[in-house]
Amino acid sequence: MAYEQAADRYLKALEATLAPDMLRGVYVVGSAALDGWRPGRSDLDLLMVLDRPMTASDLAMAGEMHAELEATRADGPHCDGHYVTPDLLGTRSQAKVPSAVDGVFKPEGHATDPVLWAILDRHGVTLRGPQASELKVAPDPEWLREWNRGNLESYWRTHVGYRTHFSSQDPDSPVNPYLLAWEATGPGRLHATIATGEVISKEAAADYTAELFPKYADLCAKAKAYRLGDATVTCTAAEALRVIDLVEAVCNSAKELP
To answer: Would you say residue 222 has pLDDT above 90?
Structure first.
């Protein structure tokens, strides 16, 4: 399934669920906007701009809609996204907004972040409403760097703790290659944003990280191949340990960036 098909399915569900005048805009963000969407590997991320805050009834209907989309997606992607009102567009707010993650709708939701606004401003694909570039949601560059630095330390650096788990396994024992792809691409994306101000895809992050740390280029190549759909990619516990070393190296390098 192409992402356009999945987006059309999501959009039709939204229009059938919410009041006709409620949707001010619907935008594709995430990997699809970054030209990195891969069938069977990527979720579909949308941003919904609503005319007003969602009521309890709206939230219940949206929850049912997402449950139905998830139950009937077959080999299609999870349909994820944030639901925001215009006053929150591009803002540095800690307010939690209704969100869907891995196809599960959460009324209490999550706060938005500057990476979302940067993708929307630079790469967002407009399905309904004004063009994404007209929304003027570009985040402050320092906020964007600050957020990525914080995420590297609060999330990615904690993965160093996985060493204990993998070091206790037979080095040749198999590990889900999804872990390799996740760990070898995620931190590098953040490093690239801190260093350049750009937001890049996971595939581009694999190349960026390989250039930054050539000793791990083989792992980055395998991670990229997995992202591109190569079903023959494997991973061992020994490789998992090396990719955790890579995560730590990326985090350490990012701390040295201006």
So the answer is: yes
pLDDT at 8 over 90: yes
Q: What is the pLDDT of residue 2?
A: 85
Q: Which burial class, exposed, middle or buried, applies to 214 when counting CB atoms under 10 A from its CB (0-12, 13-18, 19+)?
A: exposed
Residues near 199 by beta carbon (within 8 Å), at least 6 away in sequence = 34, 115, 118, 119, 122, 123, 189, 193
Residue type, 253: S
Mean pLDDT for the stretch of residues 116-131 = 98
Secondary structure (3-state) at 256? coil
38 and 202 in contact (C-beta within 8 Å)? no
| Number of residues that make up the chain | 258
Residue 50 makes CB contacts below 8 A (sequence gap 6+) with 18, 22, 23, 24, 83, 84, 85
